[in-house]
Amino acid sequence: xxxxxxxxxxxxxxxxxxxxxxxxxxxxxxxxxxxxxxxxxxxxxxxxxxxxxxxxxxxxxxxxxxxxxxxxxxxxxxxxxxx
Length: 83
Hints:
By secondary structure, the protein is an all-alpha fold. It contains 4 helices and no strands. It has 2 domains: 11-41; 44-82. The longest helix has 17 residues, at 44-60.
């Protein structure tokens, strides 16, 4: 199996990973493996969904939608993007 070294890792980040590992009853190394595995298994289409919807919204502005409706949907997309 391959190995990697992560240089210049912020102390706060390392502490957060250690805390997560403890909460999940595993070693820091096992936690990092899990974090990396989860990060790469997320399909790219999930990340592009908010971008596609944003393009649709921008194209729909002249169609008579109120600015309040657009702002509400933009906020929902932002929240989805951050999750």
